[in-house]
């Protein structure tokens, strides 16, 4: 391959940009000069006389005295005299000089920005010369796109702009032009940092407008969410974030990678910024921002090297794979490498039960837990909008063919009549069309037969939800093993798991859900199913999440076999939950809920408290009264078996429970006639539905103000 052929793809892209995409950048004489057949062939080393571009535009007339023409147009810039050299490196440098010169001469022209994107391609080419083997045309084309993208990013976000950017520049809902959008989306070809929470950017603009209470190191405001360690307001947090990004840029431009390591910021974002702003003439960082991937590749290349830092791993890999090409070639080889058979992330237990009093969001919480498992994240890092994604992962409903399509998530509710045949497999009846009809019978006889015919009863083997999702997960596990990738995770959610008869539902399969006996583990176990006789096992990429209402059945009474095989996650009431209002027409619902639960824990036990969801999004006293009359009060009656004195105590002796002495009512005669009836006996009644006391804010405040008074 000649030097001219090596540079041809780059020159051709520039020509197309100048002649077709920037029609007003050059005047007619410039266009004729560039399109002259002999000029293209001799000066640029291009044989593009038949190129479609020139056919569409028409060949320009040959202009003699090229050097004199260009000198007259651009002063002392002797571009053509440099292009005449039979040296592809000099030709590339000359072309780069021409682009830079033209950009300076017409800096205010609207088409200059398009021309700027090619600058990185030529710079990258010049940095890559002298490699063995020489660059191929395919490499030059790919390099041109990626280097141009890199140059475009640096042109849009020079270090000076980063130091002065506003919060709106950094993150906004228009996202096209935001700095974080450039890092994550627009420069994805230069290494991906997708995944995880948006908190990795330190601060981000929220899609939602409702505020949420601070939780751990995270703060959710109405417009922005940010890490509390950066500041207590969006403005302070962003100032810190911007300062630390500037520290990264300054450090990497000075070649001080150790200083980059010391900057307290999200590793993925920090190292991508460092990669983008490093010296492209002498790069020291690969486009690899995942520390695990970097270490894995390093350990494969250097199995005996131990204790190397991230920076040392970058240097070793760059030197080791230098024969592959430039910094992006090496990075791409690592991206595209066949991964080793992966181990499943065991951060999530394969069997867990969310348990707690009613109304604590257990069923709702299974959705977040399921998406955390599927995405390989902690439940705290699950992105907003996960509920919409959860619905897309759900199994499709049975379409009548008894072969429902199973997604990555299935859900079932246990009850007293639920059985093994519903959960795993069983023989089930099915109605079919009546048989034996005579197609040749006359119309009247056929109509009579149709009216009197009854469906035939048939029996079939039907798979339950557990077997269907196990089959889907096992199919994915085998496909992933063949392709050398990590299998997708599947989740089965069992609501009200403690209400079912566990031995009756699971049967012999209770053993198979143990971690060590899953398919893919060293001690994998299979059993023969009793109805079909098929060999069956539970794959290790299936996770089971159950929910248990502790008020319905105590955890101590739960089936022992189930308790040994599940991890339990307690979910207790959260009076300070963001959706529990602190002020409803003068009533602090958070203090009220806390006061009631403290009394319930003493009068009964902590497992029968009232969950925070009972008071979600209460807007006014009418809605609060409705929640008490129809949800909270009946729950208290169920808890205390109509022991009205305790119910009255939980409510702070407000007006919702009305005591009446027998001696004051129509039953007073009983006290006189029968010695067994105490005249001082008190009976209790619930406040009538239409009593205005239900809408009296003072009655609700009495529930918690009595605590302060005491």
Write the layout of secondary structure elements.
Elements: H1 3-21, H2 28-35, H3 37-42, H4 52-57, H5 66-74, H6 79-83, H7 88-105, H8 112-116, H9 119-128, H10 137-156, H11 159-164, H12 167-170, H13 179-186, E1 203-205, E2 212-215, E3 218-220, E4 224-227, H14 234-253, H15 257-262, H16 267-277, H17 291-301, H18 310-320, H19 327-335, E5 351-356, H20 362-375, H21 386-393, E6 409-413, H22 420-423, E7 425-432, H23 443-452, E8 456-463, H24 465-483, E9 490-495, H25 502-506, E10 527-528, E11 535-536, E12 542-549, H26 560-565, E13 567-570, H27 589-603, H28 621-640, H29 644-650, E14 657-661, H30 668-673, E15 682-686, H31 697-709
Parallel strand pairs: 5-12, 5-13, 6-9, 9-12
Antiparallel strand pairs: 1-4, 2-3, 3-4, 7-8, 10-11, 14-15
């Amino acid at each position: 391959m000649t030097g001219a052929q090596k540079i041809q793809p780059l020159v051709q892209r520039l020509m197309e940009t100048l002649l077709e995409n920037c029609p007003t950048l050059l005047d007619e004489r410039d266009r004729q000069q560039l399109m002259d057949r002999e000029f293209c062939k001799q000066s640029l080393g291009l044989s593009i006389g038949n190129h479609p571009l020139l056919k569409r535009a028409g060949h320009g007339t040959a202009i003699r005295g090229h050097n004199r023409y260009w000198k007259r147009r651009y002063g002392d810039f002797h571009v053509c005299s440099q292009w005449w050299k039979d040296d592809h490196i000099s030709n590339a440098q000359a072309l780069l000089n021409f682009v830079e010169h033209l950009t300076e001469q017409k800096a205010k022209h609207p088409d200059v920005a398009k021309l700027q994107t090619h600058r990185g391609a030529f710079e990258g080419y010049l940095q890559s010369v002298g490699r063995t083997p020489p660059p191929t045309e395919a490499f030059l084309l790919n390099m041109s796109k990626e280097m141009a993208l890199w140059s475009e990013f640096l042109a849009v976000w020079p270090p000076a702009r980063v130091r002065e950017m506003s919060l709106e520049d950094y993150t906004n809902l228009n996202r096209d032009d935001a700095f974080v959008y450039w890092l994550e989306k627009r420069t994805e070809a230069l290494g991906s940092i997708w995944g995880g929470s948006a908190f990795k950017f330190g601060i981000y603009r929220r899609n939602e407008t409702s505020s949420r209470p601070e939780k751990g190191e995270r703060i959710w405001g109405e417009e922005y969410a940010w890490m509390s360690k950066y500041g207590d307001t969006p403005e302070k947090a962003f100032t810190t974030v911007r300062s630390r990004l500037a520290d990264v840029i300054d450090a990497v431009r000075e070649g001080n990678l150790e200083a980059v390591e010391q900057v307290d910021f999200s590793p993925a974002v920090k190292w991508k910024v460092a990669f983008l702003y490093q010296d492209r003439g002498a790069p020291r960082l690969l486009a690899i921002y995942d520390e695990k991937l970097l270490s894995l590749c390093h350990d494969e290349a250097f199995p005996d090297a131990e204790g190397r830092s991230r920076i040392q791993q970058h240097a070793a890999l760059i030197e080791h794979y230098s024969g592959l090409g430039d910094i992006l070639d090496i990075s791409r080889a690592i991206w595209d490498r066949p991964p080793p058979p992966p181990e499943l992330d065991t951060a999530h237990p394969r069997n867990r039960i969310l348990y707690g009093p009613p109304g604590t969001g257990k069923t709702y919480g299974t959705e977040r837990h399921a998406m955390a498992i599927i995405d390989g994240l902690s439940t705290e890092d699950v992105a907003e909008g996960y509920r919409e994604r959860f619905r897309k992962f759900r199994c499709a409903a049975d379409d009548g063919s008894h072969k429902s399509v199973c997604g990555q998530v299935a859900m079932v509710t246990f009850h007293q009549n639920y059985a093994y045949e519903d959960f795993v497999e069983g023989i089930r009846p099915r109605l079919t069309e009546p048989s034996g009809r005579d197609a040749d019978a006359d119309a009247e006889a056929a109509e009579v037969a149709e009216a009197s015919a009854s469906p035939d009863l048939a029996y079939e083997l039907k798979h339950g939800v557990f077997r269907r999702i196990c089959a889907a997960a096992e199919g994915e596990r085998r496909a992933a093993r063949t392709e050398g990738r990590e299998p997708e995770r599947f989740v089965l959610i069992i609501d009200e798991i403690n209400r079912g008869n566990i031995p009756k539902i699971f049967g012999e399969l209770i053993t198979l859900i143990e971690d060590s006996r899953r398919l893919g583990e060293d001690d994998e176990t299979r059993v023969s199913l009793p109805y079909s006789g098929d060999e069956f096992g539970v794959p290790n990429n299936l996770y089971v999440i159950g929910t248990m209402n502790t008020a319905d059945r105590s955890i101590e009474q739960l089936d022992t076999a189930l308790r040994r095989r599940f991890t339990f996650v307690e979910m207790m009431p959260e009076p300070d939950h963001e959706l529990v209002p602190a002020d409803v027409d003068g009533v602090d619902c958070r203090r009220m809920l806390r006061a009631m639960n403290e009394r319930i824990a003493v009068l009964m036990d902590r497992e029968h408290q009232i969950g925070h969801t009972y008071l979600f999004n209460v807007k006014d006293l009418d809605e609060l009264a409705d929640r008490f009359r129809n949800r909270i009060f009946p729950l208290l009656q169920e808890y205390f078996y109509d022991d009205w004195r305790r119910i009255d105590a939980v409510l702070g002796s407000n007006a919702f429970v009305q005591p009446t002495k027998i001696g004051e009512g129509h039953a007073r005669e009983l006290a006189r006639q029968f010695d067994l009836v105490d005249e001082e006996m008190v009976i209790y009644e619930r406040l009538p539905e239409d009593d205005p006391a239900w809408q009296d804010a003072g009655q609700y405040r009495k529930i918690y103000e009595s605590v302060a008074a005491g």
